[in-house]
Design a protein that fits this description.
GO molecular function, one term: oxidoreductase activity
CATH class of the largest domain: Alpha Beta
Strand order of the largest sheet: 2-1-3-4
Structural class: alpha+beta
Subcellular location: Endoplasmic reticulum lumen
Strand content: 5-15%
CATH superfamily of the largest domain: Sep15/SelM thioredoxin-like domain, active-site redox motif
Pfam families: Sep15_SelM (PF08806)
Family: Belongs to the selenoprotein M/F family.
CATH topology of the largest domain: Glutaredoxin
Order of helices and strands: HHHHEEEEH
Keywords: Endoplasmic reticulum, Selenocysteine, Signal
Length: 155
């Protein structure tokens, strides 16, 4: 009698766990307002900081596993080349210089600690918030490795 109850409890527990871990279809996620193609699981982990815990289970069922979350390449410096910027946001990033280049499409050049360009990204379709989030993730914040050239026109 006891083993039958235990087996029923175990089966029910496994069914709940299986349901919680199951992925929802693209259509089901869309109905919930979630986009499976663009939703990364690390984004779901941030829901609690916005008091959105009720969305966590659905988010986890619709998200894509972050493939490079443990091995994000970080850069010592970045140079943002734009035609015009009205913001004090660049001050948040000690390794960021802003160059105003008239008529140039905006790009960000990612450099190592000695200033050698490692990657150049076109950012003309990025929002300011997207750029800020990108810099927070990929730009080192250790000011001891930053070398500024105060004689140039860079900010």
């Amino acid at each position: 009698m006891y083993s039958g109850t235990l087996a029923a409890f175990a089966a029910a527990t496994l069914a709940v766990i299986d349901f919680a871990l199951a992925e929802l279809s693209v259509e089901e996620c869309r109905e919930l307002g979630l986009n499976r193609a663009n939703l990364m699981c690390t984004s779901c982990d941030q829901l609690s900081s916005f008091d959105l815990e009720p969305l966590l289970e659905s988010c986890k069922q619709c998200c894509q596993k972050d493939t490079s979350s443990t091995s994000v390449k970080r850069y010592a410096r970045a140079s943002l080349q734009v035609s015009f910027v009205k913001s004090d946001r660049p001050e948040k990033f000690p390794g960021l210089t802003v160059q105003y280049k008239r008529g140039q499409d905006p790009v960000v050049k990612l450099m190592n600690a000695v200033g050698e360009v490692q990657e150049t990204l076109a950012i003309d379709k990025w929002t300011t918030d997207t750029l800020e989030e990108f810099l927070l993730e990929y730009l080192d914040s250790d000011p001891s490795i930053i070398h500024f050239d105060h004689s140039s026109n860079e900010l």
